[in-house]
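Worked example 2:
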Amino acid sequence: QLQFAESGGGLVQPGGSLRLSCAASGNAFNYYGIGWFRQAPGKEREEVSCISSSGSSRSYADSAKGRFTISRDNAKNAVYLHMNSLKPEDTGLYYCAAVLSESVIGGILRCGSAFGDWGQGTQVTVSS
């Protein structure tokens, strides 16, 4: 079973940038799509971005489009989230997780639900 450890969060001013890292341990990392999820204070966890198992397809929540970039390095069992032009509403605890399914329809990647145990996450706070 895959386990994940997130890092790279911090306190950043609006307009700033961060690079989150997700290190996976366990088998079959290359077989799974991986998503980044965010839980803001008082809100449910939501998917921010997802990348297919091969890394060839990506998807983003509307709030992240044009500002965030997801990537993965299967040789290192790692997934990254580059976040630019950060806004206060990006504040939250960020997690990565494998997803149950991935499909590309009309060039659009759709990822299934996350599964397995959540890691501890990495806190992102955007504030002046």
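The radius of gyration is 14 Å. The chain has a mean pLDDT of 95.
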